[in-house]
Here is the input.
Amino acid sequence: MKVKTEALVIGGGAIGVCCAYYLWKKGVRVTLLEKDEIAAGSSYGNAGLVVPSHFIPLASPEALRKGLKWMFAPQSPFYIKPRFDLDLISWIWKFCQFANKRHVNDVAPLLYELGEVSRFLYEELVQLEGMQFGFDKKGLLLLYKEEGAQSIHAEAQIANELGVPIELLDIRQIKELEPNLKMEVTGGLYYPQDAHLNPADFVCNLASFLAEQGVIFHKNTEVVGFENSDGTISQVHTTKGHFIADQVILASGSWSPGIVKSIPLKIPIQPAKGYSVTIKPAKKIMSTPLLLREAKVAITPLGERLRFAGTLELAGMDSSINQQRVQAILHAVPGYLPEFASENLAHAKIWAGLRPCTPDGLPYLGRAENISNLIVAAGHAMVGISLAPVTGLLVAQIFLNKKPAIDLHPLRVGRFS
Ligand SMILES: Cc1cc2nc3c(=O)[nH]c(=O)nc-3n(C[C@H](O)[C@H](O)[C@H](O)COP(=O)(O)OP(=O)(O)OC[C@H]3O[C@@H](n4cnc5c(N)ncnc54)[C@H](O)[C@@H]3O)c2cc1C
Here is the structure.
């Protein structure tokens, strides 16, 4: 089989489906390839937070400091599976070069701008297409304990400098926001502009909508290689035949570096495994998503369910469930919210996903320098749901050779070549 198209998107996660949406809106003929089902990767069971407030990249002094303390402790929020892996060593080396205050100051405005535009695009999507995926702009409440107070105030200061709306809350004010919540915390930081959604519903509903509009989806179709003729991808080989496209969009999350192995392109990405635990509590406890600051656990209300998500484990391309890591989440929660005893959480739906993490905490977004018809949109780490619409919009602008509305130089694809 040989199929021809204008835009060939590889990957049916939040990023791939949003690229397909904004390309389709511009009148481009789109085909999307997915090796599994739609939303089979990291986009399925994540916390679903749409958070312009996540303007601090993963590569930051705090991540480095805490990472060094936690890295080999199997029940800590961050863990590296000890092994000899040259790609991992090189990634950690690069990460350490970026984990400084200057890098945070340099990139925070860009991350915030991308997040804000993306949140606005979500609102537009709901209004324009009438799509339902549990989108709710309830803000995000960070709860912290005494030991986290200093870092919360430092974050609040950066937020103020960037003009991000925030409110520092004491216990009484938190109670006003969430009257049913029993807490053992020192205070809170509230980001009123943040939102949340059901990520699996978002990706699957958008894909179904696009299929009805004529976008072609080939599921269970794995890309296995490329034919590269003089710096152009002339064919994409898959397990279900060959595809020819004017332009190819690589949106395959953590799998992206493996897919481009046969072409001259270096996009270091480490898969950082995280888990979510979803329960159906007997009564509605809260409506604002929470972030338990020191434990690094997010709690998202999803209709009648609550999802607890967290931990970051560098263990390679392995999405198996490590019960010790799940326990790290379950044990952390009652320390903040005593009504969630860890045994009540044990009979829940557990999921693991691989966050695609770059060494500098910024996604790759742009044309591959040495392959004229390849656009890369991968490496969104902890903010792939937040940034999916703006990524799709920018990919469509790049595809049409329009000047992107946002300066994408820091996200250029060849920055580690
Ligand atoms: C526990 C956890 C909580 C998170 N919480 C949040 C959050 O609250 N907010 C937020 O913004 N982000 C969050 N994230 C991060 C977010 O999930 C990711 O950044 C995002 O899902 C990445 O989307 P993607 O489309 O790039 O990758 P994926 O969703 O992984 O999609 C890649 C797709 O490519 C397909 N693919 C791979 N190889 C091939 C191939 N050879 N051929 C064809 N198809 C292929 C895969 O099957 C997959 O479907 C969280 C992640 C985790 C793990």
